[in-house]
Write a structure and sequence with these properties.
single chain; alpha/beta; Aspartate Aminotransferase, domain 2; Aspartate Aminotransferase, domain 1; 2 domains; 12 helices; 13 strands; binds pyridoxal-5'-phosphate
Length: 369
């Protein structure tokens, strides 16, 4: 018998999504069209922004947002070294330089005080990440951006429905960027969205995703653009997922609370910090396994796997230590907190399909060690 694994992530596709996709397929309008427009409208409403523009994935969302915020060759954009590579790659795609600033070890988010040390006359924007599903330090970082006249592009790819002070992720910056990749809290297979209150940013992204065409005059190209369009097929899935996201997030939060309760007071395990006034939506439930724990983190992964529990490291190496960032002059020791954290983090199953019994089993398995 094959042992059942408690998965770290799994998309939840119901009969509603299947029916919606079949309807689009039958309509014959399978590329970008009315479903995409409806998805944009509903997503903007969900985030509390005036506009939302759909694109083909989260990386395209970040790239488009940087373009629309005027980031270009020679500019510097300050971001976290502790994130998925797409965050920094999107800056490089605009010919700009990713300038890293170290993180806060409790929240894993970029640290406002570290950002301020990195500001130069070339700095044009800050790109904070709502890592694991918790909004960045919006109060301090937004104040910093205002003081230095910088744009903010929020990487909310992991934070659909997360909140700070009752406001939703994607509404704190000049542009908020989302991914609907298969493992995300809401998924369309591949897909992305940019949220904004700025009509010009929304308009620029609509051109950028469509080869620089304005949508009014066909085959009139106003600037370099890409094919970053979303399909009606993906949008139809997104519309159904959007109806379920609050429920999905509720289950994730419930699982996270149970995990934190069960794993408290274990020597060498640090459970996630949720800051006051924040609603963390636990795209990942990430603990720190320090040297005080009975087992090395990497051995723990293998041990859990043997017990039928999936786990994963997001991310095993901070970006500045990868070869092409090293070529830009970064080196070990530049961001000591990100470097230490990347050796300690371990994400445990928290997704809505993980049952109460599964959580009890995960806690019990770790406690036994
Ligand atoms: C923090 C972060 N930024 C950017 C992305 C890029 O999104 P996508 O994979 O949809 O291009 C992802 C997801 O993969 C992500 O987790």
């Amino acid at each position: 018998m094959i042992k059942k694994i408690i998965n770290i992530s799994q998309p939840i596709i119901g009969k509603e999504e299947i029916k919606a996709v079949v309807n689009v397929l039958k309509s014959g309008m399978i590329a970008q069209g009315e479903k995409v427009a409806e998805f944009e409208q509903n997503f903007a409403q969900f985030c509390g922004t005036k506009y939302a523009v759909a694109v083909s994935n989260g990386t395209a969302a970040l790239h488009s947002a940087l373009y629309a915020c005027g980031i270009k060759e020679g500019d510097e954009v300050i971001t976290s070294p502790f994130t998925f590579v797409a965050t920094a790659n999107s800056i490089l795609m605009q010919g700009a330089k990713p300038v890293f600033a170290d993180i806060n070890p409790l929240t894993f988010q970029i640290n406002a005080a570290e950002i301020e040390k990195k500001i130069t006359p070339k700095t044009k924007a800050i790109l904070p990440v709502d890592l694991y599903g918790q909004v960045y330090d919006a109060e301090k970082i937004n104040a910093l951006a205002k003081k230095h006249n910088l744009k903010i592009i929020e990487d909310a790819c992991q934070a659909h429905g997360a909140e700070f002070n009752g406001r939703k992720a994607g509404s704190f910056a000049n542009a908020g960027c989302f991914s609907f990749y298969a493992t995300k809290n809401m998924a369309t297979g591949e897909g992305g969205m940019v949220t904004t209150n700025d009509e010009n940013i929304a308009g620029a992204i609509k051109m950028f995703r469509h080869h620089g065409q304005s949508g009014k005059a066909r085959y009139e190209y106003f600037d370099l653009g890409y094919n970053y369009r979303l399909t009606n097929i993906a949008a139809a899935i997104g519309l159904e997922q959007l109806k379920k996201i609050e429920d999905f997030n509720r289950k994730r939060i419930k699982n996270a609370i149970m995990l934190s309760e069960g794993l408290k007071n274990i020597k060498g395990i640090i459970t996630p910090t949720v800051e006051e006034n924040y609603k963390h939506v636990f795209h990942q439930y990430t603990i720190r396994v320090t040297e005080d724990f009975k087992m090395k983190r990497d051995d723990l992964i293998q041990y859990l796997k043997g017990q039928g529990i999936g786990s994963a490291i997001f991310y095993p190496k901070p970006l500045h230590l990868h070869s092409y960032f090293v070529k830009m002059g970064y080196k070990a020791g530049d961001f000591p907190i990100a470097e230490k954290i990347s050796e300690e983090v371990l994400s445990l199953p928290v997704n809505p399909l993980v049952s109460e019994k599964n959580i009890e089993y995960i806690v019990e398995t770790i406690r036994k060690i």
